[in-house]
Amino acid sequence: MNATPQPIAKAKSAPQSAPESALVADSTGTPAGGKTTIADVVVSKIAGIATREIPGVHALGGGAARAVGLLRERIPGSKTNLSQGVSVEVGEKQAAVDIELVAEYGVGIADLAAAIRDNVITAVERMTGLEVTEVNIAVTDVHTDADDDADDEAAEPAERRVQ
């Protein structure tokens, strides 16, 4: 028997909600075109990379996040966490970004924050099509050259007391 295949009728079911880490973002606005899903981690990585591009940003994250990041980087084969210090909320058409960072000493913090805000908004909107409603920036510390000297001294092995 040579029957032509019939299209399978789609059963109507209750809409399934997307997991929190994969909320829906659709820049097309047309349901017939399908749905584009952008995970929170995608937006946070874009924002993290855009933040690191700005001169005057020493590191992202608070003290505990940076300590864990340093430990992670010492593991062979591990990669830098590009979303460290960045948290986001992603909706269907909008995103909000919170950034925690350490600034270099001598940089104007207000100018630094404005440059970061502009770069993050441009990158996220261009790459995802989402409207960025806000970019909150918390400067948790200022990095100085003395901080590097203290790190170098701590990294040097102590003089041996026995031979």
From TrEMBL:
What domain of life is recorded for the organism?
Answer: Bacteria
Q: Name one Pfam family in it.
A: Asp23
The biased composition feature labelled Acidic residues covers 146-156
Disordered: annotated segments: 1-30, 143-163
Q: Which InterPro entries match?
A: Asp23 (IPR005531)
- To which protein family does this belong? Belongs to the asp23 family.
UniProt protein name: Asp23/Gls24 family envelope stress response protein
